[in-house]
What does this fold into?
Amino acid sequence: MRKRYDGVLIKGLPSFRVINPFVMRGRNESAIYFSQTIEIENTRKFLKQRNRSREPDERISLFHVLLAAAVRTISLRPQLNRFISGQRIYQRNRLQVSFIVKKDIGDDGPETNAKITFSPFDTLEEVRRRVTRDVNEARNLEGNVSDHEVDFFARLPRFLVNGVVKAFRFLDYFGVAPKGMIEIDPLYTSLYVANLGSVGLDAAYHHLYEWGNASVFMVIGRMHKALVLDEKNEPVTRLVIKIKYTMDDRISEGIYAAKALKLFKNFVQNPETLETFPEISDEVLQELSLLLPEEEQHASETGSIFPEQSAPSRSRSQDR
It folds into this structure.
């Protein structure tokens, strides 16, 4: 049987986890919600210091820090990189983040999606370089491959669009959806990020799309002053951002996600920890099940089959 292009089937899971996708069939039926307030005054000081001698197009932004913290958190908490398809649970074999990019700031400015593949060993600077490169490409007025695909299907008659969507869903259910479609679709991703703070809005809970297989949605709110409790448990006014998460509960346990969010918060508030390579144990690297660069190239050329994994995975992990 042919294996999925984008994931490795997990074996050896507890029975209730195996049954969950049959009982809770959709992502929104299975959604759980988290809200998190993060103090960022120290983070802002860090950014001011690091950007003092940088050119404008090389400066690190708060968004870069948040993405780097998310990549580092997923790298250390591999269960966040799982997804449900065909009522089976898979470990994603790439670490990818998608987000909206506006091509201009006007109310009617066109939007596109960026979908970026990261390494678990990426530092903050490497994340900044990857994001800057891909955002610049996404803002190209000629559009990217995803834009062209959407434009093509939007011009088709409704019955053809419905037929294509149904056919793709059928193929995706059995794990044989076309590689080319999965590669460009931003909803086949580890994490989808919506930065509402960039347009001055507060964070809101976002639904999980039934299309694609994104299991985690993160919405970033605006920076603002708020009362928080300090180290002495006394109320103080600090600069904060609020982040809200929607997660498919079937991929892991709530306590696992809660610990991951605590880790994420620590990275954001201490961004200097993102400037060095992470220490990731062999066990966690195995569980991540990420493709090596040469494996990814070989798979692209030959459509090779990925081995199924046991829990934890025994497939090779991505390395630098």
User: Anything to note?
Assistant: The first strand starts at residue 7 and ends at 11. The mean pLDDT is 87. The first helix runs from residue 15 to 23. The domain at 7-310 is CATH 3.30.559.10 (Chloramphenicol Acetyltransferase).
